[in-house]
């Protein structure tokens, strides 16, 4: 293909948008509506995932040692746990720290009730490691591993929390995959319909090109450039809109439902957009490309 | 050279638009194809353009067997043909210059060559001054002249005209036939499908008459056979 043909194809693609203003506008609007919905679900799903991950990171197992275990052995247990790939963090909690935390949580404002124990720590011998996992699903394996370590007396775990979070995680994955799949199918269907209308209007122009002896790529080129540009604009508009709305929506939720502040931890807009921006733009360009490429194919057989 | 050997074209089972047609047209000939509506004239043109494939028989154009031609080779083949339609088929959103340049773009002619050839083609059809105008600003006769300029700009060896005067008054019809005759004098084979009896009778060219899908007459210097 000559360079002048490439330039001509690009120019015609841009001109086509102007020549068919109404069709272009309808395509951009359809694309924008679909990408907006996609972006909305994508942000919600990402945040759900983020909240669950945060909750997962808070789930720990507690590893207790045999009484009067030598410091070197305690350290060896800690090192063995830290060496595992599925372990995020290992924190040593002394018996005194454990008692202080327990006092805060159990007695709350009536700390004087705990004064009865004075220096007699009821949790003596409860030195332990708090082990946080990267993925809550690996809890079972880590527990098994810890129980097999030399010098370990007991391992405490919370099966219910781990199982619940694991199920929630799976549910989010399936639901999000289903929603995104449905949205993609609807988007491709709508865009393909809009492109079909646009191409039907120009069926005669395509036929003339073919009668003159235009190769398929020459006919297809401008339509594909047009499709990509429409896809790009159709994706950029809702992405910009969502960017503005995102922070405002989070502010609103946090103010309106302040009771949830401790539970909900939303992702910063830029963290969401690191994934959403390239995905959305790629989706717009991809749908524009595929929509025009395949829709025009049947009109090329002249 | 165009040669059809025992060509049959059926659109639906049992209904033949062309039925065992055999004909040979030599390079540089001027041929009228006449006949009633539904006689198979347009089907013949479409088969030569490779817009349709025959149900049976062989079509050879410029030494190429169209039956064996692959889809990807059709564009190159069509570049050797110039086509003129009854309804002009110009690109309405492009001006006259762009309409003709479009045919050159399609065959990837370098821009500097295009800048010489497009005005030359416009001069041949007498529209050099109107190159900036759009199709809707021109009369029917002028639009058909633009269509002829587009058909000849790539210097095809064969010019196919399907009812080129069908939408025109007698004066314009004669001007169009004059242009086709000039193209023929430059060596182009010209095939004209027409209903215009006056033109066919006056020009004294080869006339192929078709009826119900078969050739009923083929005369070297013929006239229009009126079926009524």
Automatic annotation (TrEMBL), chain A:
One of its GO terms (biological process) is cell division. Residues 178-298 form the ABC3 transporter permease C-terminal domain. Keywords: Cell cycle, Cell division, Cell membrane, Membrane, Transmembrane, Transmembrane helix. The chain crosses the membrane at residues 21-46, 171-201, 222-246, 275-296. Its main location: membrane. It is a multi-pass membrane protein. It comes from the Bacteria. PANTHER family: CELL DIVISION PROTEIN FTSX (PTHR47755:SF1). NCBIfam families: FtsX_Gpos (NF038347). Part of the ABC transporter FtsEX involved in asymmetric cellular division facilitating the initiation of sporulation. Belongs to the ABC-4 integral membrane protein family. FtsX subfamily. This is Cell division protein FtsX. It comes from Faecalimonas umbilicata. The lineage of its organism: Bacteria, Bacillati, Bacillota, Clostridia, Lachnospirales.
TrEMBL record, chain B:
Gene3D superfamilies: P-loop containing nucleotide triphosphate hydrolases (3.40.50.300). It is a peripheral membrane protein. GO terms for cellular component: plasma membrane. Transmembrane segments: none annotated. The keyword Transcription does not apply. Residues 2-228 form the ABC transporter domain. It holds the Pfam family ABC_tran. Keywords: ATP-binding, Cell cycle, Cell division, Cell membrane, Membrane, Nucleotide-binding. PROSITE patterns: ABC_TRANSPORTER_1 (PS00211), ABC_TRANSPORTER_2 (PS50893), SIGMA54_INTERACT_1 (PS00675). It is found in: Cell membrane. One of its GO terms (molecular function) is ATP hydrolysis activity. InterPro entries: AAA+_ATPase, ABC_transporter-like_ATP-bd, ABC_transporter-like_CS, ABC_transpr_LolD-like, Cell_div_FtsE, P-loop_NTPase, Sigma_54_int_dom_ATP-bd_1. One of its GO terms (biological process) is cell division. Part of the ABC transporter FtsEX involved in cellular division. Homodimer. Forms a membrane-associated complex with FtsX. Belongs to the ABC transporter superfamily. PANTHER family: CELL DIVISION ATP-BINDING PROTEIN FTSE, IMPORT ATP-BINDING PROTEIN. This is Cell division ATP-binding protein FtsE. It comes from Faecalimonas umbilicata. The lineage of its organism: Bacteria, Bacillati, Bacillota, Clostridia, Lachnospirales. The gene is ftsE.
């Amino acid at each position: 293909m000559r360079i002048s043909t490439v330039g001509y194809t690009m120019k015609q693609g841009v001109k086509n948008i102007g020549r068919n203003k109404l069709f272009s506008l309808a395509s951009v609007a359809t694309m924008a509506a679909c990408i907006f919905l996609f972006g909305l679900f994508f942000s919600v799903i990402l945040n759900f995932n983020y909240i669950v991950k945060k909750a997962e990171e808070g789930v720990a197992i507690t590893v207790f040692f045999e009484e009067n275990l030598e410091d070197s052995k305690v350290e060896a247990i800690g090192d063995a746990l830290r060496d595992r790939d599925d372990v995020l963090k290992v924190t040593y909690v002394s018996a005194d720290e454990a008692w202080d935390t327990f006092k805060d949580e159990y007695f709350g404002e009536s700390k004087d009730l705990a004064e009865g124990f004075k220096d007699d720590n009821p949790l003596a011998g409860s030195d332990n490691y708090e082990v946080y996992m990267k993925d809550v699903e690996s809890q079972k394996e880590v527990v098994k591993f810890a129980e097999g370590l030399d010098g370990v007396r007991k391992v405490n775990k919370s099966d219910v929390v781990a199982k619940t979070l694991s199920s929630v995680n799976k549910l989010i994955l399936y639901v999000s995959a289903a929603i995104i799949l449905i949205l993609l199918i609807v988007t491709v269907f709508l865009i393909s319909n809009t492109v079909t209308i646009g191409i039907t209007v120009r069926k005669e122009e395509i036929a003339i090109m073919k009668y003159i002896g235009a190769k398929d790529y020459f006919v297809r080129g401008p339509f594909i450039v047009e499709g990509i540009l429409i896809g790009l604009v159709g994706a950029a508009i809702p992405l910009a809109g969502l960017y503005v709305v995102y922070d405002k929506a989070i502010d609103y939720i946090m103010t309106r439902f302040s009771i949830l502040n401790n539970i909900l931890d939303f992702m910063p807009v830029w963290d969401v957009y690191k994934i959403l921006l390239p995905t959305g733009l790629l989706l717009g360009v991809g749908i524009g490309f595929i929509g025009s490429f395949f829709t025009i194919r049947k009109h090329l057989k002249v | 050279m165009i040669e059809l050997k025992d060509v049959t074209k059926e659109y639906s089972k049992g209904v033949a638009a062309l039925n065992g047609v055999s004909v040979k047209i030599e390079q540089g000939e001027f041929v009228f194809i006449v006949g009633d509506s539904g006689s198979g004239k347009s089907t013949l043109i479409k088969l030569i353009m490779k817009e349709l494939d025959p149900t049976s028989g062989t079509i050879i154009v410029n030494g190429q067997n169209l039956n064996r031609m692959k889809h990807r080779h059709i564009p190159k083949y069509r570049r050797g043909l110039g086509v003129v339609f009854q309804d002009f088929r110009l690109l309405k959103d492009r001006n006259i210059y762009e309409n003709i340049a479009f045919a050159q773009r399609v065959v990837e002619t370098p821009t500097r060559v295009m800048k010489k050839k497009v005005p030359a083609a416009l001069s041949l059809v007498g529209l050099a001054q109107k190159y900036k105008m759009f199709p809707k600003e021109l009369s029917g006769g002028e639009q058909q002249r633009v269509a002829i300029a587009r058909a000849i700009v790539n210097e095809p060896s064969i010019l196919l005209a399907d009812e080129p005067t069908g939408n025109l008054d007698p004066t314009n019809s004669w001007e169009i036939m004059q242009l086709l005759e000039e193209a023929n004098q430059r060596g182009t084979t010209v095939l004209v499908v027409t209903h215009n009896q006056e033109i066919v009778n006056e020009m004294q060219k080869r006339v192929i008459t078709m009826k119900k899908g078969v050739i009923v007459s083929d005369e070297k210097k013929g006239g229009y056979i009126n079926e009524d």
